[in-house]
């Protein structure tokens, strides 16, 4: 068996997976792209194991470990994506930046710069007693 055929196929699968990770915005599609990349690595491990005629079949053993790790990664990844989707209503990766926690110092500086919040006044009413607003002047 020629080693070039599975190596080229694995390289193509890995490039497609890499493009999917870099270009996609949906978290589930990113997880699928990571799986594609892991399968390309598995294909290379098995191809080199067959090509080298390893008596211990270490490439195939590593492939089994990679499959087990990939299954655990997908299980945990999908659980996280489902939890985020339930809380946010979207699995868009760009919107996940809003979930980052701010430091206490950042929160204090933001609250000091903000205007004090009072009771909202009805439209057309002014807090200044001697001035009128556009809504009062036109009626």
Please describe what this structure looks like.
This protein is an all-alpha fold. It is 66% helix and 0% strand. It has 5 helices and no strands. Helix 1 packs antiparallel against helix 2 and helix 2 packs antiparallel against helix 3 (58-88). 8% of the residues are buried.
Task: Provide the fold topology.
Blueprint: H1 4-23, H2 27-52, H3 58-88, H4 104-113, H5 134-138
Helix pairs in contact: 1-2, 2-3
User: Number of DSSP strands?
Assistant: 0
Low-confidence stretches: none
Number of helices: 5
Distance between the termini: 90 Å
Approximate strand percentage = under 5%
Key features?
139 residues, 5 helices, 66% helix, mainly alpha
Summarize, please.
This protein has helices spanning 4-23, 27-52, 58-88, 104-113, 134-138. With 139 residues, it is mainly α. The N and C termini lie far apart (90 Å).
